[in-house]
Amino acid sequence: MDLTVIWAFIIAFAVLAYVVLDGFDLGTGILFPFLGRHENRDTAMNTVAPIWDGNETWLILGGGGLFAVFPLAYAVIMPAVYAPIIVMLLGLIFRGVAFEFRFKTVKGRFLWDLSFFIGSLAAAFAQGIALGTLVQGIEVEGRAYAGGWFDWFTPFSIVTGVAVVVGYSLLGATWLVMKTEGELHRIAARYAFVTGIGTLALIGGVSLWMPFIQPEFYTRWFTFPQILFVAPVPLLVAFAAFSLFSSLAKGAHYKPFLSALALFTLAFAGLGINFWPNIIPPDITIWDVAAPESSQKFLLVGASVLIPLILIYTGYAYWVFRGKVVEGEGYHH
């Protein structure tokens, strides 16, 4: 058993769990100003209030795991993306404070609404920029970051930033479709349709742009026989997209959210295909930057206890707060 590979999958899983789970509550925040009456905003916030902070556990697990198991990767990637990461953390702080303060005030509510929106938007955009920076490659000399302060600021990273914002908005809209009824449900369904089209366009645009950034990506997607292995991903994306729009057209409640999750998971799988076995494109592999085997073993013992625990309490929280959120009343089973 190759411990390094196991750890690469654990961290990839933590990142995917974070993107999917925190994605819809960041998305709810991004849609916040566009939900009409303030009662709708109250209801939207109530849908994520019991679970939003648990969703961020995965961010800590992903970042902490990277630091512990792939310390060199952490040391190279972090200086390359300090600016967007700090913006993301500030955005998450603003959001968290807005959650607590919004219900305590009437006069100042618009300020907390605004900080909830801006915090969500900034966090999502910063995550997209960090992703774009990693995909386009990081300059490394010796064993250290060799790029400049603003290497993260490129047309490609801006587009990936926008793609993440629109994608999270889709997750947020489909989450509200699933969790609300009446007027808010209809508004959310409308946004789900628009953001669904935007997300697909941006996934397509970024996917077509990627192979021209790194020659390595081009060989993975467009040469024989590799193309046989990767062909299912775009086909499944098309299937998930069909499922999303057909279920929205039929007025389904649960299926649009599950289809949006499938789209995100497939986009993530596509990224994985581009990267593997590199952790920093174009040529730094997971084995180059891994911690000693003894450290990996020690950490794996902790992870094998903690990750199931996190999954259990996350699942339990979602189970307890299943069902629709009714305006002015909170959760209904």
In short:
It contains 14 helices and six strands. The protein is mainly alpha-helical and 333 residues long. The protein has one domain (3-323).
Characterise this structure.
The chain has one domain. Helices cover 75% and strands 4% of the residues. A two-stranded antiparallel sheet has the order 1-2. A two-stranded antiparallel ribbon has the order 3-4. The protein has a two-stranded antiparallel sheet with strand order 5-6. Helix 1 runs antiparallel to helix 7, helix 8 packs antiparallel against helix 9 and helix 9 runs antiparallel to helix 12. The N and C termini lie far apart (45 Å). The chain has 14 helices and 6 strands.
Structural class: mainly alpha
Morphology: globular
Main-sheet strand order equals: 1-2
User: Total helix count?
Assistant: 14
Structure summary, number of beta strands:
6
Euclidean distance between termini CA atoms: 45 Å
Q: What level of helicity do the residues show?
A: over 70%
Mean pLDDT: 85
Could you give the order of the helices and strands?
A: HHHHHHHEEHHHHHHEEHEE
As an assembly, this protein is single chain
Number of domains: 1
What is Rg?
20 Å
Low-confidence stretches: none
The major pleated sheet works out as: 2 strands, antiparallel
Could you tell me the strand content as a percent range? under 5%
